[in-house]
Write a sequence for this structure.
C-alpha cells in the first residue's frame, strides 16, 4: 500500500467540497423562507444607518443560519463521506477522480461504522487551524488525525502505483 500524498488528498477534499456545495443548494433554497424575516430586519437595519441595530440584526441572521443549516450539513457530509468510503469503491467522488481510496490496516475496505467514525473525526481534525489535516503531510504513513484515530489509511489505487512512486520520491516530508 502506497500512502496518498498530502496534496493529492487536499485536491480530493476540495473536489468533494465543491460537490457537497452543489448538492446543498436545494437545502439552502428550502431554508430561505425561514431566513426571510431575518434578512428583512437586517436590510432595515442597514437602511437606518444605526450600526448597533445592524450588528444585532446581522448577529440574529447568522445565528439563525447556523442553527438551521449546521445540523443538516452535518448529516449531508456524514452521509456523503461515510457511504462512499465504505462502498465497494472505497472512495468519495473526489478521491476516485484522483485515484486514491480509504482502507483499514489490512488494506481492506473500511466498515460503515469505521467510515462514520472517520467522517465525524474529521471535525476534530479541522478544529484548530486544520492541524489534524496537516498531520498527513508529516506522518510516516501520511495519516491525518482522523486516520490515526480510526486506524485507517488513504492510499493510491494499485492502478496508480507508478504515479504514486514518483509522487513519493519528490516528497520531502519528515516522518
Amino acid at each position: 500500500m502506497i500512502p496518498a500524498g498530502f496534496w493529492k488528498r487536499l485536491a480530493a477534499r476540495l473536489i468533494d467540497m465543491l460537490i457537497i456545495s452543489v448538492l446543498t443548494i436545494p437545502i439552502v433554497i428550502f431554508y430561505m423562507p425561514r431566513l426571510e424575516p431575518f434578512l428583512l430586519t437586517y436590510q432595515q437595519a442597514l437602511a437606518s444607518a444605526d450600526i448597533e441595530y445592524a450588528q444585532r440584526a446581522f448577529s440574529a441572521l447568522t445565528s439563525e443560519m447556523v442553527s438551521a443549516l449546521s445540523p443538516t450539513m452535518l448529516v449531508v457530509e456524514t452521509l456523503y463521506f461515510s457511504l462512499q468510503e465504505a462502498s465497494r469503491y472505497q472512495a468519495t467522488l473526489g478521491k476516485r477522480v484522483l485515484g486514491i481510496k480509504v482502507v483499514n490496516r489490512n488494506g481492506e475496505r473500511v466498515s460503515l461504522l469505521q467510515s462514520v467514525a472517520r467522517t465525524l473525526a474529521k471535525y476534530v481534525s479541522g478544529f484548530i487551524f486544520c492541524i489534524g489535516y496537516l498531520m498527513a503531510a508529516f506522518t510516516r504513513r501520511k495519516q491525518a488525525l482522523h486516520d490515526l484515530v480510526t486506524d485507517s489509511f488513504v492510499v493510491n489505487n494499485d492502478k496508480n502505483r507508478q504515479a504514486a512512486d514518483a509522487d513519493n520520491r519528490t516528497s520531502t516530508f519528515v516522518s
About this structure: Residues 6-48 form the longest helix (43 residues). The chain has a mean pLDDT of 88.
